[in-house]
Amino acid sequence: MIKCAICGKEFKTITPNHLKSHWIKIQSYRILFPNAPLRSEETRQTISNGLRGKPKSEEHKAKLTKLNKMRASDPKWIEKMTAAQRKRREREAQSSSPTTSTNSPSATSSSD
Asked: Could you tell me the pTM of the whole model?
């Protein structure tokens, strides 16, 4: 279970419907709480296991192939995905390392 960073209630998934009670959208929640998960690890595993090995129709495979070819040839898409992967790695690194305050006296330098 995960806790809503606003009200502290526990959920398997923090949904847009719950965030409406706080008058906030999911995009704003992610900006305000960048390290707060939206799904519990248990829910992630359940979803992942449910999709793993699921057969795809030939039509679906063809659509994915076409889409991947289009994306692979688009420099803007490649740049966007690279930036997204970089941000995800940074978030994961921040969540696994102890948080340090950048406003601490040792982190700021004074120019006297």
From this structure: 0.46
Query: Same structural domain for residues 43 and 64?
Result: no
Residues with Cβ within 8 Å of residue 19, at least 6 apart in sequence: 25, 26, 29
State whether 44 and 59 are in the same domain. Answer: no
26 and 63 belong to one structural domain = no
Q: What is the per-residue pLDDT across 20-70, written as a single tens digit (0 to 9) for each?
A: 999 999 889 989 998 999 999 998 888 888 777 777 788 888 888 888 787
Token pair 């526990």 is found at 10
| 28 domain residue, yes or no | yes
42 part of a folded domain: yes
Give which of 16, 15, 17, 19 is closest to 7, Cα–Cα.
19
Which of 38, 54, 48, 31 lies closest to 1 in space, CA to CA?
Answer: 38
